[in-house]
């Protein structure tokens, strides 16, 4: 189970790297006015989302489910674990919203400003802090 935990953490780091970087790309993409730059950002965002973030998110979730098996078998799901799972669901929602924004840039229907994406970019940082505190401290 220790290897499962190690790979879960590795995949989670890759997933969050994408969650940190993609919204930053959105900030720069909104400011781009030339066609070549616009298309380059579209290409970068699509590849990051499809080939890095989706596999990392899937592996993180799959291995997280494997790590839940002993807790479920023991009939023991403490409050901190429920809170972590709730945060993970929010992270998944954020991930899916990122995909929606990638699509909106592709079809040139993006309405958000760079200020929006600067704030949007902070969400995964806050979620990661909460998740780490829950897992390490195990409050309640």
Task: Explain this structure.
The structure is a single chain. The chain is mainly alpha-helical and 140 residues long. It has one domain (2-137). 85% of the residues lie in helices and 0% in strands. The chain is built from five helices and no strands. The mean pLDDT is 97.
Task: Give me the secondary-structure category.
Answer: mainly alpha
Q: What's the number of extended β-strand segments?
A: 0
How much of the sequence lies in strands comes to under 5%
Low-confidence stretches: none
What Rg is obtained from the alpha carbons, in whole angstroms?
17 Å
Task: Give the helices and strands as they follow along the chain.
Answer: HHHHH
> How many angstroms separate the termini?
25 Å
Give a short synopsis of this structure.
This protein is mainly alpha-helical and 140 residues long. The protein contains 5 helices and no strands.
């Amino acid at each position: 189970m220790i290897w499962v935990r190690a790979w879960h953490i590795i995949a989670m780091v890759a997933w969050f790297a994408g969650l940190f970087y993609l919204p930053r790309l959105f900030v720069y993409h909104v400011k781009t006015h030339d066609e070549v730059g616009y298309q380059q950002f579209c290409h970068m965002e699509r590849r990051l989302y499809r080939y890095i973030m989706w596999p990392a998110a899937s592996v993180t979730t799959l291995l997280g489910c494997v790590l839940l098996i002993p807790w479920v078998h023991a009939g023991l799901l403490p409050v901190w674990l429920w809170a972590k799972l709730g945060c993970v669901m929010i992270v998944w929602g954020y991930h899916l919203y990122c995909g929606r924004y990638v699509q909106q840039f592709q079809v040139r229907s993006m309405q958000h400003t760079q200020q929006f994406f600067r704030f949007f970019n902070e969400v995964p940082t806050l979620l990661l802090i909460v998740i780490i505190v829950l897992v390490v401290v195990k409050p309640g």
